[in-house]
Write a structure and sequence with these properties.
Blueprint lengths: L3 H25 L2 H5 L2 H50 L5 H26 L6 H15 L6 H28 L5 H19 L6 H25 L12 H12 L2
Amino acid sequence: MLSIFGSAVVILATVAGAIALLFALRSFWSSELRRIHNDVIGWHVSVIGSTYAVIVGFMLFAVWSNFENAENIAEAEANCLVNVVRSSRGLAPSSHQQIRRLALQYVDVMLSEEWPAMQQGRVSPVSHVIIQQLWMAVTDSQTHTSLEQTSLDHTFGELARMTEYRRSRQLQANSYLPGILWLVLVLGATITIISACLFGTADFKLHLIQVTMLALMISSVLTAVADINLPFRGAVHITAECFERARSAIVDFK
């Protein structure tokens, strides 16, 4: 997880390191001498660059898919909470009002405690207590007609799905790329940039621009992977907007 400032520092440090390496190579191994080996270096860069591009592309796709999945799970949890209140409308008024009150409490906890806690890699214990109270309120609801029984069945179904989505969201909040994969990404970036610096060119300024652009692109992709790797933290994260909409829907539904 990186802040915007942290991402900028990483990008600038990577570009500066690549430029420093290029100047260091120039000081003890001139471009004229390196041009002799360009055929070998070119083949090496082609293989390394292609392999690393595939790895980075796959990692970026994986973390973005995980981010979208976490966002869909949060949306589904909020929608199920609204449906719990709507389905309970067919129950006795006392049961419906109790469920509606607990649902609003759950939304308030999501907005004020759960989301700030997830930004720190934790979950709020208060939300677990409210979930238990919701289950007790639904379970204790008495039915006397077929309409009430149907309403209770639908409420149970929506609450069960909501609980499942809630657990999935909590797991997503703490999911991350393993350290071995980060080692592959960082090591691959280092090898790719060093390989690009080994080229011998007649125009040093052009080579400098090419290495700078390569380092900028690689560091930008890696910081993007680092940020969206944790979907509920960082500069780019999933907001609690879905629960704000859920609160509006529940308040409007009497």
